[in-house]
Sequence to fold (287 residues):
Amino acid sequence: GYYGYPNFNAPAEIGETFVKLGFDIVNLANNHMLDYGEKGLSGTVSFFRTLPLTLIGGYTKADYDNIRLYETQGVKVAFLSYTTLINYDHINSLGSGSDYIVPYAVEADIRRQVALAKEKADFVFVSMHWGDEDATVPNSQQKKLAKLCADLGVDLVIGMHSHTLQPLEWVEGADGGKTLVAYSLGNLISTMHPSRNMVGGLLSLDILLTAEGDKSIENITLIPTVCHYSLKRDGLALYMLSDYTDELAKKHGTTLRAESNKTFSLSIAKKFVTDVISKEFLPDFLK
Fold:
């Protein structure tokens, strides 16, 4: 069944739709993953394991160190997933005897699993559920974890939780190598009220591996999106910011809220992006 804030639940058909839309990987590590306790988590993990997807973020203790790999065109990518928080009301939902584990962003675990991942894969991607809600800049914990990942030779960190866009940058590791860190891609689908939460982004990039084993990440672009709903709180739709218009912005349901939101416009939506994302990562229409 469907249940909304503060304890979220959704029907299985949503997961099945992910497959139909072409999603290859689903991540469960987030602050709401224990909203329905161990039963909710185990049911979600069991369900997604029945689908032709790579599941990350939902682990039993026994398989926590089994590195999830995605292979395409002969290139293997290892996906690791962590969260820095669980909502307070559910923080103790897994007893010590539970078969399941919350993949907290613990340094020892990250070090161990990155080492295992590098043995099995050409690239290592890390998902991080971290940061402060509504913040557009990373906090000290995010910076510390990003530097740890860079020092360990992680290739890409994909961040989320703030419901807003946060910077995209290269972080230099101890050996001089660089890790691409997207601190937050914001919301994709959401009916939150503030206009700042309606603008997110798709991270587009190419991973290249030569016959000699040299690897790189190139052609990096943050493709901005707008999640739209009407003044009647229906008509939910996802738009590329490049296709969004002032006419649509005037009809956005976010304008029902605080006075600061009543001026939502295409230029404001663009500013949410350009204030945060460096020019080198922007699409041409925003440069």
Observations:
- The chain is about 20% helix and 25% strand.
- The mean pLDDT is 95.
- The radius of gyration is 19 Å.
